[in-house]
Amino acid sequence: MPDSPALEISDLVKRYGDRAVVDGLDLVAHAGQVTAVLGPNGAGKTTTIECCEGLRQADEGTVRVLGHDPILDAHHLRPRVGVMLQDGGLPTGIRAADMLAHVSRMYARPRDLGELTERLGLGSFARTTVRRLSGGQRQRLALAAAIVGHPELVFLDEPSAGMDPQSRHAVWELVRELRDEGVAVVLTTHLMDEAEDLADHVVVVDEGRVIAQGSVRDLVADGDDSTLRLDAEPGLDVDGLAVALGDGLSVRENAPGAYVVIGAVQPATVAALGAWLAAREVLATRITVGRRTLEDVFLDLTGRDLR
Question: Contact, 81 vs 151, CB < 8 A?
């Protein structure tokens, strides 16, 4: 059906031994949208996407990709779905241009290879074998292979990992164009700025479940709260600083010497901060005020401990 979701996951469960890596997860992605799936390492997002790609069999629940079962109906889906894996999937002994040409011949109406090569800057390494490409070059080639067949749904796993800024912005622009063409893009990334810039819908996964979802605007909204960031010497008295700044404000040290003040930040807050620092002869190397970011939300939801 035209209005049906491009991807629909309901009560998905995937176990490895006695451990449920994915534990009752629900997710929906629509055509003409970029859906970003975020989560810390081990959250279950990669396993979830592998179940959608037909690489793993779910233990419980249902997965529908363009209305089909990704394993039973794989032959229907291969011409309609593009997949970009972060950690491989490309034959290493073939030259980059030959590999992309080979993949394009598998589709009835492939993209123009010259245009795609120019857009992603593949020409500079077209005659280089895949095994000799840098990480960023492999990512660009993998992206080209994923979209060369004009997919209706594309899964992108860390699409700009290892890329320089120029390559990353070229990839972002191409992802936006895919969305504007009506393609459903499901993006997994650890780069919060990438998700914040590209995503129409964000899904945060932890411990195998969706713990938050919505637009970036919805997720970062928290009343009238703003975020004040301060770089200074490590080990400041954050509780004392919070008292000096006034009610409704909290202070934490995210990293040594990197402080965040959260709450209804006003001009008086900045003045109080300056007075507090001057009284203690502490020099701030940077003070910035702005709205909460997606990274702030992500850390609040999933914690700051290493996984």
Answer: yes
Digit-coded pLDDT (tens) for 203-253: 999 999 999 999 999 998 755 567 899 999 999 999 999 999 988 888 989
Tokens 């291969």 belong to residue:
78
Query: CA angle 152-154-156, nearest 5°?
Result: 165
Residue with tokens 């996964």: 205
Cα dihedral: 295, 299, 304, 307 (round 10): -90
> What integer pLDDT is reported at residue 233 of this predicted model?
95
Mean pLDDT for all residues in the chain: 92
Helix ranges (DSSP H) in the chain: 45-52, 74-77, 96-104, 113-119, 135-147, 165-180, 192-198, 216-220, 238-245, 267-279, 294-302
Nearest to 86 by CA among 126, 127, 45: 45
Q: Rounded to an integer, what distance in angstroms lies between the CA atom of residue 168 and that of residue 161? A: 8
| SS3 (DSSP) at 27 | strand
Instruction: For tokens 């939300």, name the residue.
Output: 297
Report the alpha-carbon distance of residue 302 to residue 307 in Å, rounded: 10
Residues of the chain with pLDDT under 70: 1-3, 88, 222-225, 306-307
Give every strand in the sheet of 81-84, ordered side by side.
81-84, 153-157, 184-188, 34-38, 201-206, 209-214
Asked whether the whole model's pTM tops 0.90, one would answer: no
SS3 227: strand
